[in-house]
Amino acid sequence: MDNIQPTQSRRSFLRKCALVAGGSAAVSMSRLGSTAPAQAAAVIGGKGLAKLPKAKGPRLVIVGAGTSGLTIARHAKRAHPRFDVVVVDKQYMYCSCFTSNLWYDNLINLEFRADYSFLDAARNHNFIYFSATATGLDRSAHKLYTNMGEIPYDFLVVAPGIDYDYARIGVKEPEVEYALRTSYPGGFTMPTEHVAIRDKIHSFEGGVFVQTVPAGNYRCLPAPYERACMIASWFKQKGIKGKVLVLDANPEITIKAKGFHAAFDELYKDIIEYKPSVEIKAVDPDKRLIKTEFTSYTFDDASIYPGVRAATLIEQMGLLDPESLQKEARIDPYYYNVPGDEHVYVTGDARPMPYSKSANTANSEGAYVAKVLAARAQGKKIPWESPETLCYSMVNGSPTQAIAVDAHYAYDKKTRSFQFANVKLFEQRDHAMAEAYLEWAKGLYRDMFA
Amino acid sequence: MEKKSFLSLCAGLASIAVAHRMLAEAGRADEFTKWPKAMLADGAGKPINARRLETREALVFAYPYVSTPCFLINLGAPADPVEVSDKSGVSYHWPGGAGPARSVVAYSAICGHLLSYPSKRRSVISYSSGPNNFSGHGHVVACCAHHSAYDASRGAVILSGPAPQPLATIILQYEPATEALYATGVLGRALFDDFFVAYKKELVETYGPGQSKRMVEGRTVATPLSQYSDNVVSASLC
């Protein structure tokens, strides 16, 4: 494939890491040997034991039925059939965040993202799906607390994903935060945000639509740029006199920059306006105004993607790394367990390693963590494996054309952090990549549910 | 020529059943499954001529079920037998190429990673005689959904990507008198059970209720992938 530029991607990655406020994303090896953080006070929920079948083997409890949790559930059971796996999630229905941008341009229907049942996953992969909200953790007693009762565990995986951090765009008042969450959602946590954003796009009648891009290691680096393309594609096809204003906190498009710039310039020259290094200091949702230190931008509608942090559950469970600016967990970066506790693991987008917070990363990481758990349950050790970030971005809706990046990671002793390795970029947009993109997603759904 | 090839598999014995018995004796019977023999046919129902198989792209045929697709590949050069093993410890003897030049091989077209397969709508798994981008290897079957690449000239062993196991081999038998090719069994992990679970709804829709698990009987039509599938993502791309 043309345009393979690993060095560019590496620079991009380094830049991103630097942007995580002084490199918090770099996991310091010096902290690995330290003792476990203080045990958090248990948050009590429910009464007594959760009503579950008696464990038939070592109980592996997984909090979070997203890409990470479901991948681990399947592969841990396969790798070590004695595991008695329980997946706990508060969601009533699955709907993927990945491929949501394609839905905005009607390239896929909602079924493509949501026609998957937790019950089918549980039946096909021999685990228990427990619909409950995790409320606390007592690591000394090996108990997970939920609103449906306590669940004793032998191994616990916490994979709760991300939450937003509005303070990072200068929003401190709850009133403003909730006005933004409701009226201009980021579209990277709850599926209900995707519905709201699609409604905005499809009912847009003209003017300026703002898409912001946060700093730091935010979820799915290329997604805000892909979304800008999909919105612009919609405007173009429907003849809507609209502009997509991309306000990027970063000095350059964070990944696949060449491919996105080419799409912006060649496909959406009069529609997308890209502005780098826009550090948002405040947002006024009533006046539809975004303020920076020197200027302000007005908009007719928007998706405002604030800063990203690990899900608050990490903090509530006492798993937070107090030095983490994105409030991520403190874990062994190779084996994912809480330091000093080989019974508790944190995976997926709540991890502190500066890996891409994206589906393929969580899926490949999940397959590896499943092997770690299976090995440890049998008193064995396995070598570290890098996750893989294979990430497609649709840049054209008619005809469908996509770009992609495929990368692994390696620990760099000089910078004492993980960096991209074996990077391959596919920045020449084409239809074949778009076809591969759809099948890529279907493959992940199959791994989780079928 | 083909007889030599077949001999290399069966150590001089001329039937797959015997080969199976030999594998069983070697303690590796699980890796080989004999299925009803099926002649590979063209669109008119005539035997595919092993001498005239093209080398640029794979042909798709169903075997052993009407819904399980396989690739028929002419490597354009002889393929020697090799020992195949995967990450989970499965190992078996791959018999090498069949046909007059020992250059014809066949594999399950169900990716060993996440089960992508060629359908009428789309195929992201295909064969490339020339070098593939990721592995840098020619004679490669690659699935561009997640970039798994397999060496078609060496039992579809993994060259690169996330696949945990090789593609299953379809054992071919060549009949020199008619120059016809027959599929006779499957060597390696075929993933048919996983395939039927993963695609149950899709298979019912495509083949009708209860039809997708019918066995191929007598003959199976081999169609060039570019005709079989409306959108082929070239293996050279990924």
Question: Mind sketching the topology for me?
Answer:
The complex is a heterodimer of chains A (450) and B (238).
Chain A: H1 6-19, E1 59-63, H2 67-79, E2 84-89, H3 100-104, H4 110-114, H5 118-125, E3 128-131, E4 134-138, E5 143-146, E6 149-152, E7 155-158, E8 162-165, H6 174-183, H7 191-202, E9 207-213, H8 223-238, E10 242-248, H9 257-267, E11 272-275, E12 282-284, E13 289-291, E14 296-298, E15 301-303, E16 307-310, H10 312-316, E17 337-338, E18 341-346, H11 359-377, E19 389-397, E20 400-412, E21 417-430, H12 431-449
Helix pairs in contact in A: 2-11, 2-12, 8-9
Chain B: H1 2-10, H2 16-25, E1 32-41, E2 59-62, E3 69-74, E4 82-85, E5 91-94, E6 104-108, E7 125-128, E8 140-143, E9 148-151, E10 157-160, E11 169-175, E12 180-187, H3 192-198, H4 200-207, E13 218-221, E14 223-224, H5 225-228
Parallel strand pairs in B: 1-13
Antiparallel strand pairs in B: 1-12, 2-3, 2-14, 3-6, 4-5, 7-8, 8-9, 9-10, 11-12
What features would you describe in this structure?
The complex is a heterodimer of chains A (450) and B (238). Chain A is an alpha/beta fold and 450 residues long. The radius of gyration of chain A is 21 Å and the shape is globular. The longest helix of chain A has 19 residues, at 359-377. Mean pLDDT of chain A is 91; it is low at 1-38. In chain A, 57% of the residues are buried. Chain A has helices spanning 6-19, 67-79, 100-104, 110-114, 118-125, 174-183, 191-202, 223-238, 257-267, 312-316, 359-377, 431-449, and strands spanning 59-63, 84-89, 128-131, 134-138, 143-146, 149-152, 155-158, 162-165, 207-213, 242-248, 272-275, 282-284, 289-291, 296-298, 301-303, 307-310, 337-338, 341-346, 389-397, 400-412, 417-430. In chain A, α2 packs parallel to α11 and α8 (223-238) packs parallel to α9. In chain A, the strands form 6 sheets. A 6-stranded mixed sheet of chain A has the order 3-2-1-7-18-17, covered by helices on one side. In chain A, α9 (257-267) links the parallel β10 (242-248) and β11. Chain A has 2 domains: 21-161 and 311-377, FAD/NAD(P)-binding domain (3-Layer(bba) Sandwich), CATH 3.50.50; 165-309, FAD/NAD(P)-binding domain, CATH 3.50.50. Chain A is built from 12 helices and 21 strands. Chain B is of the alpha+beta class and 238 residues long. Chain B has a single domain, classed as Rieske Iron-sulfur Protein (3-layer Sandwich). Helices cover 16% and strands 29% of the residues of chain B. Chain B has 5 helices and 14 strands. In chain B, strands 11-12-1-13 form a 4-stranded mixed sheet. In chain B, strands 6-3-2-14 form a 4-stranded antiparallel sheet. A 4-stranded antiparallel sheet of chain B has the order 7-8-9-10, with no helix packed on it. In chain B, β8 and β9 (148-151) form a beta hairpin. Chain B is globular, with a radius of gyration of 16 Å. The interface between A and B is medium-sized, with 24 and 22 residues.
